[in-house]
């Protein structure tokens, strides 16, 4: 043993970290080997077990295989390890019974890697010297060895060196993502094989590094949230307990009072934006956002994602749901992520889950970068197949044609995208409301709430100021949009009563979008294709493009239409195809069903009578149109049947003359009743009851006192109904005027605050409520008042204005 060489390898705190060239130099110096073939042999000694492991791993890297620790023996005297066996990573076989049971099947089984290789190195510790010596060595492998240019991909050789870590930290702080960092490392080291690890290792290191950094700074965030809650108890925040690391916290969620209030008005669709969760960003920040009545992004709460497992996302979604009073959205949009999808299915089982198309297109540029470079037309073809197809059949035909054209049928990622097509391709999602202006818009960007404020280099200490600045800016834009809506009437492009109605109901942004559809009807023709009683089917297409026709089914009695484009279901705005059918059927105004309150200027109104109608004049026009269309529909069927022969035509003419006399007589009786009652004209009763009442009035005297009493009660009931209708109309007018004044005052207050923001320093803010009396009803407006008396005195002046 005295003549045997003793090799010692340094081991750092993070694990074995051996530079191949340094290891070879060390072994050359200690073994005096001239040919450099460093091969284990029985009796070779090491100073420690770690040195033996490092030596075998370095040998494996040079030969072309990966290693792992297989077994060990412990001393019966003190329990210390006295023998180790290091083996080829392909040693043994996978135990299939451990991976599968009768009740559960693995969804994505891993590739079989163990093939029963016998190659190994056994080392044993000598009791006398404490050194370790090779006691057994098997050289032969039963599988192909990896060539030198691929050995860096083997697991035991994928190690990030100290200098590489320093470079990664520097580039990450500058806002670079894993892909760009790996490109820099490859250039720095002169090839991927010299880097010593893969992009996956770089991503994992960056994520772990970021989590350690966040845990160190998370106390700053918690202090900020506690202060916000102390200033305003309505400020909501919650922190997840990290059961795996008791000294650290898990995910964090918070929502200010405005976010909670806005959700009550616009919480029908929600986006969970995980753009900042990627390794390119230093902050794992994820806001919950929506869309207000101006089409602007609004905030429903924020989260810091420290843990990215399914349980943590379930906690986050449940916490957000509790903060929003347990009301689940109709639809939710997230990144294309299997973990997030599983959490959404648990917490929002009734909501329609959509993957963000913008994120998927971004991933396409990464996963298919070689295709984008080789074929400049690929991006346009992909956009057409996804965004410009009108039916499921069209999409699938275009999709497979795209795969064949660019030879991508076997691309695994595209196959996975196709499997998930029902959750991101618009043609499968148009039957659900997502509050988007168009279902076919191109995904060039996502309308993120914090765009322009938070970027890749933002750290936690900078975050708070930028977060508050983003909130202030978004509020200013909302106030500006409210002001423009109330004080600058849009220019009408047609004489249509429907356009005038929409201009008085919608916000400016939404009216502009509706106006585009209304004007677009001028180039479309609607022809009746089928008539099934009250349900008519129309083909709507541009002149000369009948092959691109959309199918609209219109129920004339219910005043509801459904279009094959499903734009109204998707965006809440009536499409030009339905409007074209309304035009040919002489429907003068939009029925209430097609006016979503969330898109109107009174979206935040608390008026409880909105279900009865938004405007008395609109109700009158609508009821008049319903009566007109109902009569015309019945008359068309009558005329079509009566015109089949001369005899039926003569009978029909006689019947029409009798009907005209009856209607004329009833109109005279109605005028007399209106003048006798002295009230405004209300809605008439149904046709059958009205004619019966007319016949009763022509009788000289009821034979029975009971009949006379019934007639009196019927007249009193009609009078009461008319009075109620008049009172309701007046009340709606008063409430609408109140809401308009309330909104005007709110805009004035916000404008005063904005104008003072730059001129007066903000010393302290606190929530207060200013009450004002409008039409004998008190309306409460939350405002923030500065402690300075000069600023306090300005707000009452603004209210008086």
TrEMBL record:
<comment type="function">
    <text>Putative transcription activator involved in regulating light control of development.</text>
</comment>
<dbReference type="Pfam" id="PF03101">
    <property type="entry name" value="FAR1"/>
</dbReference>
<dbReference type="InterPro" id="IPR018289">
    <property type="entry name" value="MULE_transposase_dom"/>
</dbReference>
<keyword id="KW-0863">Zinc-finger</keyword>
<dbReference type="InterPro" id="IPR007527">
    <property type="entry name" value="Znf_SWIM"/>
</dbReference>
<protein>
    <recommendedName>
        <fullName>Protein FAR1-RELATED SEQUENCE</fullName>
    </recommendedName>
</protein>
<dbReference type="Pfam" id="PF04434">
    <property type="entry name" value="SWIM"/>
</dbReference>
<feature type="region of interest" description="Disordered">
    <location>
        <begin position="678"/>
        <end position="705"/>
    </location>
</feature>
<dbReference type="InterPro" id="IPR004330">
    <property type="entry name" value="FAR1_DNA_bnd_dom"/>
</dbReference>
<keyword id="KW-0539">Nucleus</keyword>
<comment type="similarity">
    <text>Belongs to the FHY3/FAR1 family.</text>
</comment>
<dbReference type="InterPro" id="IPR006564">
    <property type="entry name" value="Znf_PMZ"/>
</dbReference>
<dbReference type="InterPro" id="IPR031052">
    <property type="entry name" value="FHY3/FAR1"/>
</dbReference>
<keyword id="KW-0862">Zinc</keyword>
<feature type="domain" description="SWIM-type">
    <location>
        <begin position="538"/>
        <end position="586"/>
    </location>
</feature>
<dbReference type="Pfam" id="PF10551">
    <property type="entry name" value="MULE"/>
</dbReference>
<keyword id="KW-0479">Metal-binding</keyword>
